[in-house]
Amino acid sequence: MPSRRRFLTTLGMTSIASLAGCIDFGEATYSPGTDADTEWPMPAYDRGFSAYNPDAAAPRDGVTERWSTAIPALPRRPVIAAGTVLVPTASGLVALDVGTGEERWRHGKADSRARTPVVHDGTAYVGLVDPPGLFALDVETGDQQWHIKNIGYDEAAPTFGVDYDHLYVGGVGEVSQIDPTTGKVTARTEVFGSVTALAHNTSLLVGTEGGEVYSFSVGDRGFSDQWRLKVVGSVRAIVTSDSDIYVATWGGPAYRLQGGLDAGSSRWEAERGAVGGLAAASRDVVGCDLSGLRTFDAHSGDVGWNREGEFTAAPAIAGDTVYIGGETEGEGGSGFVAAYALSGGRGIGSLRVGGKRWQFDVGSDRPVGQGIAVADGAVFACTEGLKGDTGPRVYALDPA
Questions:
Q1: In terms of Cα–Cα distance, which of 70, 115, 110 is closest to 91?
Q2: CA dihedral 15, 18, 20, 21 (to 10 degrees)
Q3: Can you name the CATH fold of 39-399?
Q4: Tens digits of per-residue pLDDT, 148-187?
Q5: Fewest CB atoms less than 10 Å from the CB: which of 199, 254, 328, 394?
Q6: Band of the pLDDT at 316, cuts 50, 70, 90?
Q7: What is residue 364's predicted lDDT score, i.e. its pLDDT?
Q8: How far, in Å, CA of 143 to CA of 324, rounded?
């Protein structure tokens, strides 16, 4: 029979071991990206709009400004490909050199109101409100390859099929399948309401302003219905990671939807949603709004960690780090870009320390808005305006 001292010692060691198992001491699940030559060719990086590139190198310990460039009003999330930063604005699509920030070309006019483009194989596909339609443009020169009138100028960014041989574009009450080389519409299907989100993993996922989520099997034969689900609130974003589907809504919760035999049903709902934007890594889903930045456990929906603040730019994840933008209230407040450890730092559950890696203040009385992009070893962000008459700017931030 063991002595009381040995029993208490064993009990203490067991308790410590159990507690240690509950404490996250680092980045065991995620590791820093090492590739400094990556691109960000779609608004949220890939066809599934995950906003997650595990291989991308990006600033982790601090930043320095590579360049900042003035742009027209109302910028949207930038896209980076072929050495070019594409910024959609109220005055058309602006192309900047990724290394210097110098303007290369513009497409559109004063009231064009460009939508966020997608890029593949040296071609950018962008919708404009005026003239209304979808344009295919050479990324390096801005030369127009084709234009489809009265299609693709709504809020949802396009996405591609699995082999990039089809481009899918949303509209009011319909989704179109387009041959990206010719601009020919090859198929259409109807949906209920205006399309607000598109994503593609093993199927085409469509979200609408009326809170409908659709799944279509797509290909050379067009569209084939798989399932349809009504959610609470207007769909603002659909994000996929592997076979998982996450939905952010305006006026409702965030959802994880099931695949397989139960495809289309809800696996979990998070009351505090992610209307400001979503990003999905292998184990964690990152969401933000004007009340905070938080992670959800991908399987259970439980909140992993939360940081209070007014976060106004959709997050991006590179390697083991979350990049986000926002605004600070009060006299002398400034818009900012910040980086957080995807693990949330060290601690138990939501009680963690050391999660914030750096913050860069842009000196603006308006927020860093729309969304963050990570490419070419740097972080890219747009401000919605600056004090004085200098207007909005695009920032490229390098490691310090």
A1: 110
A2: 180
A3: Methylamine Dehydrogenase; Chain H (2.130.10)
A4: 999 988 889 999 999 999 999 999 999 999 999 999 999 9
A5: 328
A6: very high
A7: 66
A8: 33
